[in-house]
Amino acid sequence: MNLAKDFGPFLTLGLQLAISVVAFFFLGYWLDGKLGTWPWLTIIGAFLGATGGLIKFLREAIALGRKADAEFKQHEKSSRES
Q1: Residue 1 has pLDDT above 70, yes or no
Q2: Cβ pair 46, 25 in contact under 8 A
Q3: What is the DSSP letter of 39?
Q4: By the 8 A CB rule, do 57 and 16 touch?
Q5: Cα–Cα distance between 14 and 49 in angstroms, integer?
Q6: Confidence class of residue 69 from pLDDT cuts 50, 70 and 90?
Q7: For the chain, what are the domain ranges?
Q8: Which pLDDT tens digit goes with each residue over 24-54?
Q9: How far is CA 6 from CA 32, 72, 75, in A?
Q10: How far does CA 34 lie from the centroid of its chain?
């Protein structure tokens, strides 16, 4: 079992969530500077980044969990047949 291969996708989920929050926060901050709407677009950007990142995080975590369950069941089935 290769740990990096097995757990790598799970480890990147948190990083993707953090990047989406930070990116949308700074996009809102930049737009606030251009439009003079401080702090509204910064707040909206942070919430959009957190919401979108969390939705993506949950979808990918569920998909990865299902894939891991299927692989585990396949492994158990093949070990019982041996």
Answers
A1: no
A2: yes
A3: T
A4: yes
A5: 13
A6: very high
A7: 21-60
A8: 999 999 999 999 999 999 999 999 999 999 9
A9: 42, 12, 14
A10: 29
